[in-house]
Structures are given as C-alpha cells and as structure tokens.
Design a protein that fits this description.
heterodimer; A: alpha/beta; about 45% helix; about 20% strand; globular; B: five-stranded mixed sheet; 18 strands
Chain lengths: ~120, ~550
C-alpha cells in the first residue's frame, strides 16, 4: 500500500507543487490543510504516514501544529517545508518534534530524499 | 514540464495575496495593530515562497526584502510610522507590477533594485538601532538536508522544478473541494449554454409543429435538463462584489490623499454575489462615481469645518440584492449638488425653458449626465459631477440597468445603480413593428395591453395613453424606428423607468422568449435605441430594445 501524506501549506500553489512531487513518487496525498489548526484536525482524522508542514501559516503556525500533532501521536512523521531565512524556526520545529526539513524552492530529488529518510 | 499550469496557479494566488496585502496595509494605516502586520507578513512570505519556486527572481528578491522589514515590525523592533506605511504601500505596488510583468513573460527583465534598496535601508537603520541594545541570537542549525538556509542559492531556472504533468491531487476532505477554473472557460461555457438555449427554443418550435407525443416528451425532458444546466452555470459564475470592490479602498485612499481630503471609506455588502460579467463591467463605472465623489462632492477638511461637519467625510460604497437586481450605491456626505448652479448651466445651454421651476433629482441627473454638460462650463465653483457621468449612465444602461440620483445641497449625494444579476440570458417580449421583430427586456415591463383608440389623448401636444385613469406618456416604436404610421389597433407595454412610467406602442407583441444577449456597441452620439442583439428561436436575428433609450 502507498504511504499516505497530508500536505499543509497556506498557499494552494505550494500544496499543488508538493502534491505533484509526492504523487509522482508514488505517495498518496490524502488531505491538504491551509492552516496549522486544520493540519492538526486533519492529522487526527486521516492519520497519514507523513505530514509536510509549512511554518508560516494563519490560525496556528506550523511549529505549534507540529507540537499538537506529536502530542497526539508521538510517532507522527512530520517533514517541515520552510522558506529560506527561517533557520531559527526550523530548529524550533525540530525541537517540537519534526523529523526533518527541506527548504523552498524545492528540488524534487531533495524532497524525496527527505521523505525516504523520514519514512525510513 | 507543466510550466503553464503552475504559472496560472501562481498568477491567481499572487493576485489574492496582493489584495490581502492592500487590505492589511489599509487597516494598519487606520491604526490597527500587530495582527495586521502578521497578516501582511504571511501574505508576503507566501508570495516569496511561490516566486522562488517559479524562479521569478525579482519577485522573490523584493518579497524577501519586504518580509525582512515586516519581520522587524512584527517583532516590535521598529515602530509602524507613516513613513514605513508609505514605503510598504509603494513596495506592494512595485511587487504587483513585478508580478504582472513576470506572469506575462517570465524572462522579462524587471528592475526592483530601487525598491529593494529603499526597503533594506529602512530595515538596516532599525536593525542597527536594536543591535546596539539587544544583540541578536542565531539558532545553531545542525540537521540540514537541503541547501544551506543561511546562504540562499540564486535560482537560475525560470521554470519550476517539477518534471511531469500530474493532475492536481484531489483532497479527500469534502469541505475544501474547490477547483480553480480559468474565468475564460466559464465564459465559453456560458456562451455555449446560450447557444443551447437558442437551440432548445427552435427544437420546441419544431416539436410543437410536428406534434408527435414521443418527440414532445423527449423535447420536454431535454428542455428541463438544459434549464437546470443554465441555472447551474449561472450560479457557478456568481462572484462576490467584494472581489471588485477591494481594490477601490486603495484607490480612494490615494485619491483622497492627493486631493488633500480626509475620507472614511466604508464598503458594505461585499459578499453580495453577481454574475462575473456584470462585475467585470461595473468596476469602471463605480470607480468613476467614487472619483466624482472625492473630486466634487467631498469638501476639504477646512471647508467641512466651516460647514460644521466632521473633518473626515464619509464615503460609502454598498451592494444589496433587490428582487432580481443588484443595487450598488455610492454615497457621500459632501456638499451635494447645487440645483441652482445646474439650472443656470442648463438655461445657458438652452436645455430648459427660462420658466422652468424646481428641478427634481431625476432632472438634475438627466442634465448632468448629458455628454459634456459640465465640461462646457467655465464656472469653476459649480459642484458639477458631470464629468464621466454620461459614461457611467451609458454603461449602466447598456447593461440593462438604471441610474438614479438623490442629493441634498450641502448634505451629500447618492448615486444608485440598479443592475441585473446576470447579463447573458434575459426574458424578453417580442414586439413587431412592420415586419421586423424586436426584443423588449421584461425588466421594466409592468403590463401589456391592447390599445383602444379612446385611450389615446394629447396633453400639451404630447401623446398620452390612459390606463385605468392614469395618464402615461406614450411612445410609438414605429416613430422611433422610422416606420410609417399604421391604423390598426396597437399593443402597448407599460414600462416602469427611473424617471417615471412610460408606455411603448408597437404593432403587436407576439410572445415571450428567453434571449441570449450578444453585446452591441451603438455608435457614440447616436440616439440609443438598442443595447444588444440576439438570435430568436426561429433562427432570425433581432435587436434588443433599450427601454430607457427609447423613452
């Protein structure tokens, strides 16, 4: 069975692009969230194998969402997708329980490497 | 590589974010605080991420610089001063034009260095100040799997880094099942439905003649389905007026500022929905009206104080649903329109008789909406709103709508536009004159009747029609179209128009039909009798009568 993914980003553009990369690699995008709050809610509902999480989002940012998701499921596998210039936040996200991160703009190969590592 | 699809997504989303930025900035300027900075930051941040992914370097650089400045504001390391807000407004404008040019041609060289430099200068000054008191701390980043975040690599590719054309993943969640559709595609769909409605009419005609029960049943069924299809497409094309209104906030602010006037601008009913084609058409007229208000209606703060009004004028743009129409109002509490000045001008131009008494609001509107009415005037103090009003009136009427004015000298003015919710398909009465058929939209039709000779009277040389004791001015379609008079009993339609009731006499009304409007540009300056054309169910073309033009 394919691994399932929840894609969280406040930009439709980014969700589409990340979704394309992951779908092409054989993962199944089972849900999208455009805010931290909705990411947490959908994680609980969908229990995906992987979550890609943007950091800057309305209604609860990515970091708080990671905290809430790992509180709910310590085994949750969250991959942070951050824009450049957010080193401090990335470090914070990893302390909060994220497993790895990639920096926008993405190269599909980098994203997939990170995905393999996180799922591995 | 499906660059095109990403480029379209980028364009659509960037436009939304730009609108958000302007809304947040305006709120910030009104003195709303930290939340607005955070919103602004998020919108800029999103654009930065998207433009980096698309390889739109100038957009990325500019949004990066903006983001840095906004981050300082967000952290309170820098106060939000009017100078900062002005820089932000300018940068958002530059960002918008960069996004526009890059979306047209990704390789277009765009120079944003000036804007970036001025933003950076502002950020650096603030950083230097805070660094002195509060040294910044860097988090050590130990787990890196991608490019080093601290040294962003310049993106050299003008295309996204995805190599296949996979369909948009459809989210499982039902609440968010939206698909973005190119507006042009909706237009095409609507045109096709229009043709289908015409074809349905022809099919129904033929089916009635053939009178075959099986055929009738099939036609009935197909007709119902086409009807539902039409409703669905029409609904899908409805968009909230707020989409068009948002950009006015910025325009009003800038115009007021450049005129040295103070205005509190309020938008009401932005969630009222109208057909996209109506919205596309009214943007310009509404902008005209707002400009007119600011230019001529709203006084300077000093003048307002003298008049005993608050320094800041109130300008309101509102939308509301009324029956099957959308009513848009632009109102201000400015100086209003001085009837005496209008009278003077109209007299001088020979438009009214010297013994003409008081002017009604409708008469004032009719006068000031005459092409060139106020521009012919050298009387500078005249609070004329003429400039452009003729353009507005012509546009609104060509859409099958109407314009009304109400004004109180000294206390303000309101212009009310009533528009159909959709333009594409309208109900019309088919009127015959000689051997030609014309479509009369039923929007203004109150009733139709057979004219008895004794109903026709003359008052002051004007032909009138007496309907149940009420005397209504009459217009003969034959006269307007240049057809010779005829002796047979005519049919008449009573029309309810903004400047009163009117009756239109035609040879006969032959039926009612849904007609698909094909827009139609009458030569400027010609008497406007028609505002479109259509194809009737028998396949022949017919012109659509403009009731107000005929009156």
């Amino acid at each position: 069975m394919n691994n399932t993914v929840l894609v969280c980003d406040d930009a439709v553009f980014m969700r589409t692009m990340i979704g394309d990369i992951l779908t092409q690699a054989g993962l199944e995008v089972v849900g999208e969230a455009d805010s931290g709050a909705s990411a947490v809610e959908k994680y609980k509902a969908l229990k995906p194998d992987l979550v890609t999480m943007d950091i800057i989002m309305p209604e609860m940012g990515g970091i708080e969402a990671v905290k809430a998701i790992t509180d709910f499921d310590p085994q949750a596998r969250v991959l942070m997708c951050s824009a450049m210039g957010q080193q401090a936040l990335v470090a914070e996200a990893i302390q909060a329980g994220a497993k790895d991160f990639v920096v926008k703009p993405f190269q599909p190969s980098r994203v997939l490497e990170a995905v393999q590592r996180v799922l591995g | 590589m499906n660059t095109q699809r990403y480029a379209e997504l980028f364009r659509a989303e960037a436009r939304e974010r730009l609108a958000e930025m302007n809304t947040s900035l305006l709120a910030l300027e009104r003195g709303e605080g930290a939340d607005r900075v955070a919103e602004l930051f998020r919108a800029v941040h999103t654009v930065k991420g998207m433009s980096a992914a698309m390889g739109y370097v100038p957009v990325r650089d500019l949004s990066h610089a903006l983001e840095t400045l906004l981050d300082l504001l967000r952290r309170g390391a820098m106060p939000v001063t009017p100078a900062v807000i002005e820089t932000l407004f300018e940068s958002v404008d530059t960002l918008e034009s960069a996004i526009v040019s890059v979306s047209v041609d990704a390789n277009e060289p765009i120079d944003v260095s000036g804007a970036v430099a001025s933003i950076e200068a502002m950020s650096t000054a603030a950083e230097a100040e805070t660094a002195a008191t509060n040294p910044t701390m860097e988090w050590p980043v130990t787990r890196q799997t991608d490019q080093t975040p601290s040294a962003p690599r310049p993106v050299s590719r003008p295309t996204p880094l995805v190599t296949s054309a996979i369909q948009v993943p459809v989210a499982i969640d039902k609440a968010h099942r939206f698909v973005r559709v190119d507006a042009a595609r909706l237009d095409t769909l609507m045109t096709l439905i229009g043709e289908l409605v015409i074809a349905r009419g022809r099919l129904q005609d033929v089916s009635r003649k053939v009178a075959n029960p099986t055929l009738s049943e099939i036609v009935l069924n197909a007709s119902r389905l086409i009807g539902s299809l039409q409703t669905e497409i029409t609904t899908a094309r409805m968009v909230p007026v707020g989409q068009a209104f948002e950009r006015f906030e910025r325009m009003v602010r800038d115009t007021a500022q450049s005129l040295g006037k103070k205005v509190v601008f309020e938008i009401l009913g932005s969630d009222i929905e109208v057909d996209k084609s109506v919205l596309d058409e009214i943007g310009e007229p509404v902008m005209h009206l707002l400009r007119n208000s600011l230019d001529h209606g709203v006084e300077t703060p000093a003048e307002r104080r003298v008049a005993g009004k608050p320094a800041a004028a109130k300008l309101t743009l509102s939308a509301a649903r009324e029956r099957s129409s959308v009513v848009i109002r632009v109102s201000d509490d400015g100086r209003g329109i001085d009837m005496n000045k209008v009278l003077e001008r109209a007299l001088a131009a020979g438009l009214i008789d010297p013994d003409h008494g008081m002017l009604s609001d409708a008469e004032i509107l009719a006068l000031i909406a005459r092409p060139g009415f106020s521009t012919t005037s050298k009387v500078t103090e005249m609070s004329g709103r003429g400039v452009g009003l003729d353009v507005v009136a012509t546009k609104v009427r060509s859409l099958g709508g109407s314009v009304e004015l109400s004004t109180d000298a000294g206390a303000g003015a309101e212009i009310r536009l009533e528009l159909p919710m959709t333009l594409a398909i309208i109900h019309a009465l088919l009127a015959r004159s000689e051997n030609e058929l014309y479509a009369l939209p039923i929007t203004h039709v109150v009733e139709t009747l057979l004219v008895d000779p004794h109903m026709v009277t003359f008052e002051d040389g004007r032909e009138m029609l007496t309907v149940r004791g009420q005397s209504i001015p009459a217009v003969r379609l034959r006269d307007r179209l240049g057809h010779p008079p005829q002796d047979r009993r005519a049919h008449a339609a009573v029309l309810d128009l903004p400047d009163g009731r009117m009756s239109l006499l035609v040879d006969e009304f032959v039926g009612q039909q849904e007609v698909v409007v094909k827009s139609f540009d009458a030569a400027r300056g010609m008497p406007q009798l028609f505002n479109g054309a259509t194809i009737l169910t028998n396949g022949s073309p017919a012109l659509i009568l403009d009731a107000q033009g005929i009156a």
